[in-house]
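Bug report (template v2)

What were you trying to do?
Predict the complex of my protein with adenosine monophosphate.

What happened?
Run completed; filing so the output is reviewed.

Input:
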Amino acid sequence: MVGGGAKRAVCYDVRLSRPNSTAILHNFDLHNHSTASDGLDSPAALMALAAKGQCDAVALTDHDTTAGLLEARNAASSLGLRLIDGVEISVTWPTAGTNSDTRPTTLHVLGLNIDPTNNALRDGLATIREGRSNRAMRMDASLREAGVVGIGDAAFAIAKNPDMISRTHFARAIVDRGIAKSTGAVFEKYLTTGKPGYVAHQWATLGDAVGWIRAANGVAVLAHPGRYRLPSDEMHALLTEFKQLGGAAIEIVTGSHQAKHTREFTAYAKSFGFLGSRGADYHGEGEGPYRPGELPPLPDSITPVWSLFA
Ligand code: AMP
Ligand code: MN
Ligand code: MN
Ligand code: MN
């Protein structure tokens, strides 16, 4: 666990078997955030943490932006660390199971080993980001109606990249105001579906997100599937659609997954023929269970997504 005098997590090595070779040990952490989106560490500081966590390779996967990758690349090369260029794309999925109570679900799709200069990806991400400032103003108004006043300005003041204003910045601003003790508590009370500060928003379609990633020669990975709380028929529908669109992997070991999720999505990966991914989803000290590189290994029975990265 991270923070507050908690014991530092053990650093695991991850076994990668290659045909005709002995097993090679790797510590790949393929999901992390910087101040280019809603992380607390600059891209360079994040690279230093990844080196400290003994990562062999680290991906920077900021939400809907690749703006941190250049700084990360410079820092990684001076540390002798391998950087995988990444992004985490926000998606609105209409929810296609047999559940009659259909409602849109927000999904996150990681693009790994992308070419950040690709025009289709760049233009697509710019379109998603355009909606964020407008959503932030609507969130501010909605919170004001609930008696929490002036949080929009405070959130923009915290955000290092104003293009990428997110609910996380609102949560931190509300904690700073002393209204709640933790960002998790703020999400529960104000920022999730049906709560006073939540406003619906239309992100990219799943097809667009996977298409942009593939256009940029990247690998599409469904992030933290355990977080979506989809009934099994809807999870099947999602994984079927993701596979058809060209999705290659699902995240199995990540900050918001418990051991039961790792077991559940190991089984899904095998039955759908997905590779498995592993990433801390680190946002900053004290905001999640794992620092970069300091998370459990992928199960031995799973082929890691990094087997695709020569
Ligand atoms: P946004 O893309 O602006 O809607 O913000 C989504 C981000 O909010 C996620 O990437 C997480 O970093 C954060 N988040 C979502 N749900 C929670 C939660 N329950 N507790 C803490 N952070 C959360
Ligand atoms: Mn986030
Ligand atoms: Mn996410
Ligand atoms: Mn993330």
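What did the reviewer find?
Residues 1-24 have pLDDT under 50 and may be disordered. The radius of gyration is 19 Å.
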